[in-house]
Design brief:
Length: 226
């Protein structure tokens, strides 16, 4: 598959590239081209399963799957996790009717214009690079999940421990090269045109590890489905 590099995340009105990835939750491959002319699709381009925030975002998207299908909108989850590791995870943590694909090389993320941040000591040039001083100053508060506001690295460690998530060699390889991969969700219409997005790119990093509300996402889906 040829790679398409774009300057920043795709925006509403842009045509999405065709991507072809190995399916996790079924045999064969999944291509965005297969949906064109048939149905709108919400594609979530997440970090690897080693990221506890993305595991929660994936579950949240999956929970909307039935409501999206009621509107005629399909849903696809893409993770930066090698396929065998991803299959093992979803075997023990199944999500009903999840359509998921593996992209350990992050080809789809680049094609949709999502940056992979470089971490530095003190130099920040968002969204290409970010200083660890900035990262450590970013607080995340997840009521019911964390005991209170925590910096994002501490929160990630806390959540992984809480989940009992065991970092395997495949996870460590993904984290070594893609820890700074920014995630995004893109809602495409039947013709493959982007109609709505949520990414971590805007607002200088304040969106990192955040996600759209179900109401926002379903409202966008209603517009695309109408």
């Amino acid at each position: 598959m040829s790679e398409l590099h774009v300057d920043g995340p795709l925006q509403p009105g842009d045509r999405a590239p065709n991507i072809v990835l190995d399916a996790i939750t079924r045999d064969g491959t999944i291509a965005l081209q297969d949906f064109r002319g048939h149905s709108p699709i919400l594609i979530g381009l997440f970090r690897g399963l080693h990221c506890p925030f993305c595991r929660r975002h994936i579950a949240a998207q999956a929970q909307l799957g039935a409501a999206l299908r009621d509107k005629g909108v399909e849903s696809l989850t893409v993770v930066n996790t090698p396929i065998e590791r991803a299959r093992l995870y979803f075997r023990y943590h199944p999500l009903p009717d999840l359509l998921a694909a593996s992209d350990p090389e992050r080809v789809s993320h680049r094609a949709f214009g999502l940056p992979n941040l470089e971490f530095t000591d003190h130099e920040t040039e968002w969204p290409r690079k970010v200083g660890m001083d900035v990262v450590m100053s970013m607080q995340v508060d997840m009521p019911g999940e964390t005991p209170g506001p925590m910096n994002r690295l501490a929160a990630a460690e806390y959540l992984n421990n809480k989940d009992g998530y065991e970092m395997m060699e495949a996870d460590q390889r993904m984290a070594a090269t893609g820890q700074g991969q920014l995630f995004g969700q893109f809602l495409l219409d039947r013709e493959g045109i982007v109609r709505w997005t949520f990414t971590e790119v805007p607002e200088g990093g304040q969106r990192m590890f955040g996600a759209p509300s179900p109401q926002e996402l379903m409202s966008a889906a209603s517009q695309v489905a109408s």
